[in-house]
Automatic annotation (TrEMBL):
Protein name: BIG2 domain-containing protein
Swiss-Prot/TrEMBL keywords: Membrane, Signal, Transmembrane, Transmembrane helix
The UniProt record lists the keyword Metal-binding: no
Phylogenetic classification of the source organism: Bacteria, Bacillati, Bacillota, Clostridia, Eubacteriales
Sequence intervals crossing the membrane: 332-356
Residue ranges annotated for the BIG2 domain, each copy included: 250-326
Leader sequence segment: 1-26
Source organism of this protein record: Dehalobacter restrictus
Entries under Pfam families matching the protein: Big_2 (PF02368)
């Protein structure tokens, strides 16, 4: 009788614990859903010389990871886009250090919220052409119009401003941080110990401005390096409103891996295409070969048909974004010829060696 009561009590307690744990787990799931995308990168897990793929997609060949830093020294303005959803609420920071300047024009290095090459915000360290003026800026590009937040119908209200005294230095690391939401964007510059140096905020009034984008790194005419990137996207474009159409979430970049391929006649290899952003509404892509007689391609699978060089292209459905891979096809007979040649030369060399040794003994 006592045993039955004990078992009944144990069963009741078990049910209560199960109910409690289920409720707690559900609460944890709800809390985790508040964060759409979280990413940290200290650039320590890449092979030396990596371009950051697949986590980063660059539009400049000079982006490279070395010594635990993501580096770039291209004179032309270029971006390294994070492989992330398009964010509507974004907190994004990175350490930035400028090593040297390249050129005699305005030079920048910093972080950006990027929609496309003609629409973005950037927070950057800047050097004037005479190299005497070092400052920081939070600027907007709309439809190719620079400093749009100051001009005409796209002029925005200014919020918090803390200019402070600033003359940034070479070979000194700074922390740059952008915070963007549906109402405003804030850019801030810190020392690595957390001391605030500079801060500026724009209110999205009027709202014809860049309000969403992909976290990105950017440089122009500086030799700069980036470290300790932290991204928290709490709302994606798709998450703004369940009834929002996704037709305007456009592909901003695509990248083929590998960038170059060597195959033999008759061989096949699969190419991969990375689409940026990951939540683009139309991810349909087309594969084409500029010489199907040398190599064909079907859904990314390349087949070597005859010796030669060919470029395989992947493009979005509207042909606006594309990338290429150079494919070199070689005939098996070439390898056979080289192999036989090496074998024959080796046999001749061995015979000569034996002949010489025999002569020496006699």
């Amino acid at each position: 009788m006592i045993l039955k009561k004990a078992l009944a009590i144990l069963f009741t307690v078990s049910q209560i614990l199960l109910t409690f744990s289920s409720t707690s787990l559900a609460g944890m799931d709800d809390a985790s859903n508040n964060t759409a995308f979280v990413y940290d990168d200290d650039f320590s897990g890449y092979a030396t010389g990596s371009d950051g793929m697949p986590n980063w997609v660059t539009n400049g060949f000079s982006w490279v990871i070395n010594d635990g830093y993501f580096k770039n020294d291209l004179v032309k303005k270029s971006f390294a886009l994070l492989n992330s959803p398009t964010g509507a609420e974004v907190s994004f920071e990175s350490e930035v250090m400028i090593k040297a300047s390249n050129g005699d024009k305005y030079k920048i290095a910093g972080i950006a919220v990027y929609t496309d090459y003609e629409n973005y915000w950037h927070l950057a360290l800047v050097e004037s052409p005479d190299k005497n003026n070092h400052y920081v800026e939070l600027e907007e590009m709309i439809n190719g119009k620079w400093c749009a937040q100051y001009k005409g119908s796209t002029k925005l209200e200014t919020g918090t401003v803390q200019p402070g005294s600033l003359h940034w230095d070479y070979n000194h690391p700074y922390l740059l941080k952008i915070t963007l939401n549906e109402l405003s964007i804030t850019g801030a510059l810190y020392e690595l110990d957390g001391s605030l140096i500079w801060k500026k905020k724009y209110l999205f009034k009027p709202d014809n401005c860049v309000k969403t984008g992909i976290p990105s790194l950017t440089t122009a005419a500086f030799e700069a390096q980036f470290d300790n990137v932290k991204v928290n996207i709490t709302k994606t474009v798709a998450g703004e409103n369940p009834n929002t159409s996704l037709d305007d979430i456009k592909v901003t970049n695509t990248k083929i891996t590998p960038e170059e391929l060597f195959i033999k006649v008759g061989q096949t290899r699969k190419l991969e295409a990375l689409i940026i952003p990951t939540n683009a509404s139309n991810k349909k892509i087309n594969w084409t070969s500029d010489n199907p007689q040398i190599a064909s391609v079907n859904d990314g699978v390349v087949k070597g048909l005859s010796p030669g060089t060919v470029f395989i292209r992947v493009s979005t459905e509207d042909q606006s974004i594309s990338d290429t891979c150079k494919v070199t096809v070689t005939s098996f007979s070439v390898y056979l010829f080289v192999g036989l040649y090496v074998l024959i030369v080796g046999i001749i060399a061995l015979l000569i060696f034996r002949y010489i040794r025999k002569k020496e003994k006699t």
